[in-house]
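Reviewers of the previous submission asked for a worked example of the structure-prediction workflow described in the proposal, so we include one complete record here. The input consisted solely of the amino acid sequence. No template or homolog information was supplied to the procedure at any stage.
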Amino acid sequence: MKSPPIFLNADLLALVLKDIPAADVAAQKIAATLQDHMIGQRKTFVMETVFSDPNGAKIALLKRAKATGFHVVFVYVTLADLMLAKARIGHRVKTGGHSVDPNKLPRRWEKSHENAHATFAFVEDGILFDNSSYSDPMRLIAITHNGATVATFGPVPPHFANSLPPVAAST
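From that input alone, the workflow returned the following structure tokens.
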């Protein structure tokens, strides 16, 4: 039986490293090193990220994986607005998770959506979920394939309407 892919998550690594100085920074560096290692070894892995990096490193990683022969599947989870993101971060902190500098949150929010837009344009397969509603969590919004939107499910949230690639032409 085939083993499931390795899950690389800087937040989980930070929990293991919690007693060292700047554990979150160390965890991010370790996760990036492991991601590069897995690509070099041609081993399947799953990663989690807020996807707000300002330098395009995460996009470059996904492009490198694709160029190496990986089938890249991009799953992006969005929220309705910045206020909901702030509330979710507050809840995470109350339950022992890490915080986010409130002054950085608006930039990270915008950059995450910009990065998602760029990524949906080149990955083989993309899936967009909206996790804004407690009564309808993880609502499937859209599926993309090779840079085209192939299916939408209900209305696309207004803040994300311009982030999906064009609808695929009918054949």
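The radius of gyration is 17 Å. We consider this example representative of the routine output the project will generate in years two and three.
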